[in-house]
Amino acid sequence: MTKSPAALSLTGLTKRFGAMTAVDDISIDIREGEFFTIVGPSGSGKSTLVRLLAGLEAPTSGRLHLRGLDITAMPANRRPTAMVFQSLALFDHRSVGQNIEFAMKMKGVAPEARRLRALELLRLVRLPESYYARPVTQCSGGERQRVALARALGSDPEILFFDEPLSAIDYRLRKTLEVELKELHQRTGKTFIYITHSLEEAMVLSDRIAIMRAGRFEQIGTPDEIYRHPTSRFVASFMGEVNILAVSQTPAGPVFADLECAAPEAAGAFAVLRPESLRPDASAPVTFAATVTQKLMLGSRTQFHLRAGQAALIAEIAAGSGASLSLGETARFGFDPADIAWVQA
Amino acid sequence: MIGGRARNWVKVIWVCTILTALYLPILSVLLASLANTRYMRFPHKVWSLDAYRGAAADYTTVTLHVISLQIAVWVVLLSVVLGTLGAMAYARYDWRGRTLFQKMLVLPIFFPQPVLGLALLLSMSALGIAPSWKTAVVAHAVWIVPIVTLVISIRLFGYDVAQEEAAFDLGASRWQVAREVTFPALWPGIFSGALFAFLLSWSNLPLSIYTSGADTPLPLWLFSRTATNYSPLVPAIAVIGTFVSGLVVLALLLLRRVLSRAAN
Questions:
Q1: Fold of A241-343
Q2: A8-229 homologous superfamily
Q3: Nearest to B165 among A81, A89, A154 (CB)
Q4: Nearest CB partner across the interface for A155, out of B170, B181, B184
Q5: Which of A17, B30, B194, B208 is most buried per CB count within 10 Å?
C-alpha cells in the first residue's frame, strides 16, 4: 500500500491561554481526501484546535504543514482552507447567491463566472437554483446548513473544516445531513476535518476518529477500532451506553469486584463490555445473577437495565431472539471474555 | 362586545386624536407666523407674510441656523464615531465590567439636562474655557453620545461576530471584512444614530442655555424671544428652522439610499 502525502501535518501544535493549555503538543498527519473527525467533550480543546488549523488563532508553539508547505504563520484569508462555523455565520444581509459567491468576489472572479459556479454549487448541495436570489434570512435550518457548505466550497478549498455545524439541528434532519455530507465528501474527494461532541456522528461520517481530552488525543483510530478496542474508560464511556467493570486482585486471582465472579485472563484494570455482548445465557463462559430493573423497547432491539450486586449494567438483545424477561425478574446473565475490551485506566 | 364596525370607528377617532395632538401645535405656530400682531392671538384679523420678509432680510436668521447646524454636525460626527466604537466593544468583546460600564454610560441620560448644563458650565469655567458653540458641542455630546451608542448597539444585538471570521476565512482582507461585513451590519444603526444625534442637538435648549456662550443656537433664540420681545418673526423663524431640519433629514435619507445602492 502506498502512503499518500499528508494533506495537513501537525507537529507539536500547542496553544496556551494564560495558564490554561487548550491544545497540548498534538502531532498527527491527516491524509489527502480523508474524513477526519475530532471528538471531545466541551472544553477538551477541539474548537481551539480547529481554529488553529484554519488560521483563526495562532499557535503558541508547533508547526503546521499543508502538503509539505509550512503554513504556521499564514493568516486564514491566505490559507486554501475553508470552515463551516458552528453558528454557520452566514452573511445575513446578503442573498444565498451572494453568500456562496463571497470567496470568489474577494478573489476578483467576474460576476458571470461567479454566478455559474454558485448555481453549480447549489445543485451540489441539493438546493434548487431558485434559491440563488433568496435572502439567507428566509432559509430554514437545513437550507442554511447547505448554504454554509456551498459557501465554504465556493472558495475551492483544499481542506474543509467543520466546527460542530450540526449540533443545533434536530435529530432527523441531522441524520439526513450526515448522509449528504458523507456523499459530498465522496463526490468532491476533498479532505474534511470535522469537530463534534457526538461519537455517534463521528462513527457515521469518518474514515478516522481522534478522541480528544484535555488538549490531547486520547485515541486515534478508525470507527471500528474505536468501537471495538477503546484504549481507556474515557473513550469507552464516550460511546454512550457501555458496561465498565472494575477488576480487583484477590489471592484467588482477579475478580469482577461488583459482580463477585472470577475474571479469567484479565488483561487490564477495567473491562469494557458492550450491551449486546451481555446475554441471558446461563451457559456463557462468565455468568452471574442479575435482576431486571428496567425494560426498554428500542425497535430493533430490547434494552434491559440490570442490577447485579453493586453493579448497574445494560444488556441489549435483538428483537425476536426469544428472550422474554419481565421487569423484576432475576435470571442468570453471561458474556464471553473474548468480547471484552481491556483498559488500564 | 363591540361590533367590528364600531371598533373601526373607535380606531379612526383614536388615530385622528393622536394626529391632532401632534400637529395642532405645529400648525398654530405656522398660523402665528402669518399674523402681524405683537401677541399670539387667534383668530387673526389680518393675514400677512411680513414676518417672513423680515426673517429673510434679517441676517440673524442665517446666523442662528449656521450656529445650530455647526453644533449639530459636530455632535453627529462625534457621537457616530464614539457610539460605533462603543457599540462594537459590546457586540464583539466580553470584558470584565462590561455591563457595569454599559449602565454607567447611560446614566447621564437620566440626569436633568439644565443641571447637567450648569455642571458642565462650572467645570468649563474652572478649566478656564470660555463658552462658545464649541463648548455647546461638548455639552450636547455628553448627553447624546450615550443615546447614540445605545441606538447602534441595539442594532448590533443579533450580530454574529463569527461572520467577520467567516469572511476572513473565505479570503477577505481586513479592509474587505470591514467593508463587506462589519459596515453593512453597522450601517442601519449608524444611520438611526446619526438621525437621533442631529435631531436631539438641533432642538436642544437646556444644555445650550448654559454652554453656548455668546453664540446663540436656534432654540435658545426662539426661547428668549418668546419670553421677551415677541413678534411674528419668532414663529416665522421657527417654521423656517423646521424646514431646514426637515431638509437635513431628507438629505440623510437620500444619502442612505445612495449608499445602500452602492453596497449592492
A1: OB fold (Dihydrolipoamide Acetyltransferase, E2P) (2.40.50)
A2: P-loop containing nucleotide triphosphate hydrolases (3.40.50.300)
A3: A89
A4: B170
A5: B208
